[in-house]
Design brief:
Elements (H helix, E strand, L loop, with lengths): L2 H13 L9 H11 L6 H12 L4 H22 L9 E2 L2 E2 L1 H29 L4 H15 L4 H9 L8 H26 L4 H28 L2 H4 L5 H5 L4 H5 L1 H25 L5 H28 L1
Antiparallel strand pairs: 1-2
Length: about 300
């Protein structure tokens, strides 16, 4: 995706939730703050690329991309609340609840969820009836009680759960991986991808989702708030799942490398089947570059501990 296309995507993110003139001013201000600070937008970029690769129209692809990103952004607003992660900073600015209160953050998140369902349904409704049914079931699975919601509840009650790799990665599967699965698999499903392509995309989503979570966990330990743009060292202070805390920084970095290599194999098989998915190689390179940086930091930390 070109820089111009990325700027256009950022504008679309802000424009797809129209705020009525009569909207209560504080809610309007809170939503404007969210819409003008969308983050990297890597997920909607992937959705767009996959959807277009499988023949969806640009309108449907954009509806799906923004809809799914609204779901993700809403989940962050909920996640940052004092009753959840009690974060102070997100994407380099104060969390929405800090300035607009818990109620303002909750209402803003619900506005995003409401619009997300409308946009997602608009994208899904252009497919055959059987495909619509599969897509809606897939969305419910990964956003609902078998996915994001269950993962968040496990996250909140992690103190009472075993602090091992299995439990910690199960939470990551429900939260981070579920969102990556929607990002990679749902647009392909709507575009009529073959069973083997969907299976490979599922595997890529698992490997990449766990990789992104380990990257985030390592950042929480190794980087400051100014580097990450969000509150740092929260996992340790709140006793929340963090694979780098469970395995140790060095072992987590090694697992990250293995997951990326496994993802590479799946991506190569996918591109052999569908050459128009070649853009996945670029995304993989970006993930690998960040992983390399964090692995180097992990090695430096390990070296410091042994001296």
């Amino acid at each position: 995706m070109t820089e111009l296309e990325r700027r256009r995507l950022k504008s679309t993110f802000a424009e797809y939730l129209q705020l009525p003139a009569h909207l209560e001013p504080r809610l309007k201000e809170a939503l404007n703050r969210v819409l003008q600070n969308p983050g990297s937008l890597i997920r909607p970029e992937i959705v767009l690329e996959v959807a277009l690769a499988y023949g969806l129209s640009e309108t449907r692809a954009t509806d799906l991309a923004i809809g799914l990103e609204y779901f993700h952004t809403a989940s962050l607003l909920f996640d940052d609340l004092p009753s959840m992660d009690d974060a102070m900073e997100r994407r380099g600015i104060s969390c929405i609840h800090i300035e607009f209160g818990d109620a303002g953050a909750i209402l803003a998140a619900l506005a995003l969820v409401n619009r997300a369902y409308a946009l997602t349904w608009r994208a899904v409704s252009g497919s055959p009836a059987e495909c619509q049914s599969q897509a809606l079931a897939y969305i419910e699975k990964h956003l609902g009680l078998c996915g994001l919601l269950n993962g968040q509840s496990m996250d909140l009650h992690y103190a009472s759960l075993p602090h091992d790799r299995q439990t910690t990665e199960q939470i990551a599967m429900s939260k981070t991986v579920s969102l990556i699965q929607l990002t990679l698999v749902l647009p392909a499903l709507l575009g009529g991808a073959s069973a083997i392509e969907l299976q490979l995309l599922e595997r890529v989503a698992v490997y990449w989702g766990l990789s992104y979570q380990i990257v985030d966990d390592l950042k929480d330990i190794l980087q400051s708030s100014s580097e990450t743009g969000k509150t740092a060292s929260r996992d340790l202070s709140l006793d929340r799942p963090n694979i780098a805390l469970v395995l140790g920084v060095d072992s987590a970095a090694k697992r990250l490398g293995r997951l990326i290599r496994l993802g590479d194999r799946m991506v190569c098989r996918l591109i052999d089947l569908s050459p128009n998915l070649g853009f996945l190689q670029t995304l993989r390179a970006e993930l690998s570059e960040e992983a390399l940086h964090l692995t180097e930091s992990a090695c430096m930390q390990a070296a410091g501990e042994t001296t």
